[in-house]
Design goal:
Number of strands: 0
Largest sheet: none
Number of helices: 8
Number of domains: 1
Helix content: 55-70%
Strand content: under 5%
Structural class: mainly alpha
Length: 173
């Protein structure tokens, strides 16, 4: 394994360890033990992700960035601990099903957010609040998903969030 991958993995694990609730953090690590190999080695989608996420380990790189963004957003909004931990857990797992339950698909499957629930069921993995975590994942596609999910956010919250995240961009990326 190359140093870039090892550094990415260290960052991934460190970000997951930001989950304060032991049950939710352990759920994430247990899910990752059963995650298809494709999650770790394949690219993120070509249409919706940054250029360097479109190559080897791109899906993992994308997930680490999402975790960084969620951590920053939770800091900006001072999200309470339980919700924060659910969002972090969802961020860590949101694309583990990108290539199907066994990781054999050649490209992103459109309903990949729902595959996460299938992986959890297949291996009987759960924790308190697991349905909330899985629902966050299932809704994460926003306007690109089926059904379309449009989160409600007021204009002041939008401006504050974008302003804060852009100020954090070098650390997030």
């Amino acid at each position: 394994m190359d140093d870039g991958f090892l550094n990415l993995m260290a960052d991934f694990v460190s970000s997951i360890n930001e989950i304060r609730d032991d049950d939710k953090r352990n759920f994430v690590f247990n899910m990752l033990e059963h995650t298809p190999n494709a999650f770790w080695i394949k690219r993120a989608s070509r249409n919706h992700h940054l250029e360097d996420e479109r190559g080897s380990h791109g899906n993992l790189r994308h997930t680490v960035r999402v975790l960084h963004g969620v951590i920053a957003l939770c800091e900006a909004t001072q999200e309470d601990s339980d919700i924060r931990d659910s969002i972090l857990a969802a961020a860590a797992l949101h694309d583990v099903g990108r290539y199907g339950i066994d990781g054999n698909a050649e490209s992103t499957i459109p309903d990949h957010p729902f595959v996460v629930r299938l992986i959890a069921a297949k291996y009987a993995l759960h924790c308190p609040g697991v349905d909330h975590i899985l629902k966050i994942i299932e809704d994460h596609m926003g306007i690109y998903g089926e059904p379309i999910f449009l989160p409600m956010m007021g204009p002041s919250t939008m401006l504050h969030t974008v302003d804060y995240l852009l100020a954090q961009l070098p650390e997030i990326l």
